[in-house]
Amino acid sequence: MDQIETPRLHGRPCRAEDKAHVTALFGTEEIRRWASPPGLVWSAERYATVTRRLAAHWASHGWGPRLWFEGRSLVGIAGLQFAVLDGLAAVEIAFAVLPAAQRRGFATEMLAATLSEAGGITRRVDAAVLEDNAASRLLLSREGFRQVGSMVEDGRRLLLLERSLT
Q1: Tell me: the pLDDT tens digits for 72-107?
Q2: Most buried one in 43, 54, 69, 159, CB count within 10 A?
Q3: What is the CB neighbour count within 10 angstroms for residue 57?
Q4: Closest to 91 (Cα-Cα) out of 59, 127, 56
């Protein structure tokens, strides 16, 4: 299922032509500090590469991260993606909400919609969240994720969480 609708939002696959949306999301310091290592330079080419990778995930697997909109306004990105967490293959849930759209329940809505389709893809969903990202940790906990470990990546401590779908 490519499109998902919730009471307030609609999500669609990220496409190769979505560089402006990816730039709007990851161009904000508030999102970059959680989503990438300190000091990583986000150039125009990096935004283009990330956009191509998101679109390629959909092309290869028929599922992946979606861009989410309220009407025509971009709210954020959320979805499942293949990942390697602490050396193991995983189906990871990832999400980010534009700062102007935060604290309105959009992340909860996007995650609930993503998890509702996850059972057709995997029996377990993993997440990796920075230890000091209290808001994301709380949201994932509310969605039934539990901590199963931790790891250090790029000098930052990530908590590893999982949620069984069976």
Answers
A1: 999 999 999 998 888 888 999 999 999 999 999 999
A2: 54
A3: 19
A4: 127
CA atoms within 13 A on the CB side of 51: 20
List all residues 6 or more positions away from 71 whose beta carbon is below 8 Å from its beta carbon.
Answer: none
Pairing of strands 73-85, 65-70: antiparallel
Which of 52, 85, 73, 58 has its CA nearest to residue 9?
Answer: 73
The answer to whether 80 touches 93, Cβ cutoff 8 Å, is: yes
Q: Cα dihedral angle (43, 46, 48, 52), rounded to 10 degrees?
A: -170
pTM higher than 0.90, yes or no? yes
